[in-house]
Amino acid sequence: MTEGRWRVEVDGATCIGSGLCVGTAPDHFELVKDTSHPINELVEPAEAVRDAAESCPVEAILVRNAATGEVVAPEQ
Amino acid sequence: MTTAGEARTYPFSEARGLELDPTYRALRDEQPVARVRLPYGGEGWLATRYADVKTVMSDPRFSRAATVGKDIPRTTPARQQGTTILSMDPPEHSRLRKLVAKAFTARQIERLRARAQQVVDELLDRMAEQGPPADLVEGLALPLPITMICEMLGVPFDDRDRFRAWSDQLLGVTAFTAEEIEQARAEFRAYLAGLIEQRRRTPSDDMLGVLVQARDEDDKLTEDELVDFGITLLVAGHETTANQIGNFVYTLMANPEQLAKLRDNLDLVPSAVEELLRFIPLGNSAAFARVAVEDVELGGVLVKAGEAVLVSTASANRDAQVFDNPDQIDLERQDNAHVAFGHGVHHCLGAQLARLELQIALKSLLTRFPTLRPAVPIEEMVFKQGRLVRGLSALPVAW
């Protein structure tokens, strides 16, 4: 059952640990040693996850449709 | 130390130059979340350790929106207004932030590097023609960030004297009366409303134009939010960096061995900027309290729902649990995860722009004027008083 789900990735090398994603979507991101990680890689679509990806100052978060691979956020 | 029940008067002291009151250090050691009493709004908690400060800034159980209109502990008479991005929690905060976040990403800001360099070069040319001596505040520190944010927003640079005065008053703590601050806010709002009307007549692709479109075509924000967002971007876009350019150069001149080290190895500029951001307490005191929306245990105390918590990022940046020799300047410091730009959803939108401006300003200044020195004894430099942020009234330099 991955249809409609989103796959969340964080580029740890790019992440600056601003905490924006953790504050925006606390159920979906956590900071480990100042670097963000998705709590679950596969998630049900959630506005907070999209908001986190759109707000990341270094564009380290990528949200894709798990089935198709299509980029959901950030908008290009 | 006082007992946990006894509130200390806060701010602990009137800020002197760029010194950090030693009480922060004592509290970090002995009472990391302490009771404090502020000039307005009574008592609250003050967090001074790095870990607790980060928690309060990123945990949704601590709310900025819950402070709106309330008589919460604060340094200024005015209560928090609800139409600014700094007074919002997600998802309202995200709704506004997303409208401009793209323009402030590291990738987009990097594209402004050549323009920022050009602005700095022209300013330094003018300083060289007219000096020495020269006032670095008027010559570089103010015009650089004002030029950059004006061009991004689409605000006429020629109006700078007007909005600088309003901006200064908005950030006043004790330097101005409540009436003066309200007057400045009203005039600033009328000015922004005028710029917005211009865009309704003639659309533009600058940031104000984009925000006007987001309001008129997509109903993404209210008219009050639009006006206040413009003010916030313009004020935050220059006051902080302008003061820090002066504070950085002052700190380096006050520590000549550090100045020489940086001048002799300009590859250190990026890490030097991070270290000076960490070391220099820009804020005069903790501000922008959060209110707990449920009971939260923090730093060994129970913060009850409805109670206010202040955080000192300046104190967090000197926490020995995180930074080796925290009271020493180390321009080569590695893993410098300071919280000078805050943390969590309100992490400074302009952080990457500020870094760019600070890096270019420092590097160009030391390249152009390798013999840079204070034009008056460093202890005679005058800092502004009674403001939210620290900065020099003037910074006379020679070379």
Describe this entry's structure for a reader:
The complex is a heterodimer of chains A (76) and B (399). Chain A is α+β, with helices and mostly antiparallel strands and 76 residues long. Chain A is globular and about 30 Å long. In chain A, the strands form two sheets. Chain A has a four-stranded antiparallel beta sheet. A two-stranded antiparallel ribbon of chain A has the order 2-3. Chain A has two helices and six strands. Chain A has one domain (6-73): Alpha-Beta Plaits (2-Layer Sandwich). The model of chain A has no long low-confidence stretch (mean pLDDT 94). In chain A, 18% of the residues lie in helices and 30% in strands. With 399 residues, chain B is of the alpha+beta class. Chain B has a single domain (8-398), classed as Cytochrome p450. In chain B, 46% of the residues lie in helices and 9% in strands. Chain B is built from 16 helices and eleven strands. Chain B has helices spanning 23-30, 50-58, 92-101, 106-110, 113-130, 136-141, 143-153, 160-170, 178-201, 207-216, 223-236, 239-254, 256-264, 269-279, 313-316, 351-368, and strands at residues 8-9, 33-37, 43-47, 62-63, 134-135, 290-292, 296-298, 301-303, 308-311, 373-374, 396-398. In chain B, the strands form three sheets. In chain B, strands 1-2-3-9-6-4 form a six-stranded mixed beta sheet, covered by helices on one side. In chain B, strand 2 and strand 3 (43-47) form a beta hairpin. Chains A and B meet through helix 1 and helix 2 of A and helix 2 and helix 3 of B.
Descriptive terms for the model:
heterodimer; A: 76 residues; alpha+beta; Alpha-Beta Plaits; four-stranded antiparallel β-sheet; two-stranded antiparallel sheet; 6 strands; B: 399 residues; Cytochrome p450; six-stranded mixed β-sheet; three-stranded antiparallel β-sheet; 16 helices; globular
Average pLDDT figure of chain A: 94
| Structural category of chain A | alpha+beta
Instruction: Name the assembly state.
Output: heterodimer
The side-by-side strand order for the widest beta sheet of chain A comes to: 4-1-5-6
Indicate the proportion of strand residues of chain B. Answer: 5-15%
Which regions of chain B are unreliable across 5 or more consecutive residues at pLDDT < 50? none
Second-tier CATH architecture of chain B: Orthogonal Bundle
Largest sheet of chain B: 6 strands, mixed
CATH C-level class of chain A is: Alpha Beta
Tally the helices of chain A: what do you get? 2
Structural class of chain B: alpha+beta
Instruction: List the domain count of chain A as a whole number.
Output: 1
